[in-house]
Amino acid sequence: MTGSAESYLPRMVKLDFPKFNGTEDPTSWVCRAEQFFEFHQTPEEERVPLASFNLEGDTQLWYQLMKEEHEVVTWQVFKEGLHVRYGPTQYQDFFGDLTKLISHVVLLVSTWH
After folding, report:
1. Is 4 a member of any domain?
2. Which tens digit of pLDDT belongs to each residue from 24-53?
3. Exposed/middle/buried for 20, CB within 10 Å: 0-12, 13-18, 19+?
4. What is the mean pLDDT of the chain?
5. Are 10 and 41 in contact (CB under 8 A)?
6. Structural contact between residues 20 and 54, judged by C-beta atoms closer than 8 angstroms
């Protein structure tokens, strides 16, 4: 076999779609879901139905309410709604604030030298 792209045969890999119950950071879950979509080349119109089958607990009710509020729930609308409902509030995102502060300090120190 040569090293060309044509000779590459992908291994059959079983990837489970991640479950989401609202207790974890939605950013991490969305990232894993998008990796799944990319790996399986999931069409845009199939992303929300597939993701909704993997919602658990309170998130199922949230999705049903979202479907009632929006005529069409695109993946983008779904992600934004998920972040609004289950993402950290401005006051809860301590890690994000700390990361921004550290980046700012590093920038100040690097421009000072």
Report:
1. no
2. 989 999 999 999 999 999 999 999 999 999
3. buried
4. 83
5. no
6. yes
The pTM of this model reads 0.68
Residue range(s) defining the domain that contains residue 77: 26-112
Q: Is residue 69 part of a domain?
A: yes
* 24 CB-side CA count, 13 A: 13
CA 5 to chain centre: 29
Residue 21 lies in a domain: no
* Helices 58-69 and 75-86: angle between axes, nearest 10 degrees: 130
Q: Is residue 14 part of a domain?
A: no
- Tell me the Ramachandran region of residue 57: left when phi exceeds 0, alpha when psi lies from -120 to 50, beta otherwise: left
* Structural domains counted in the chain: 1
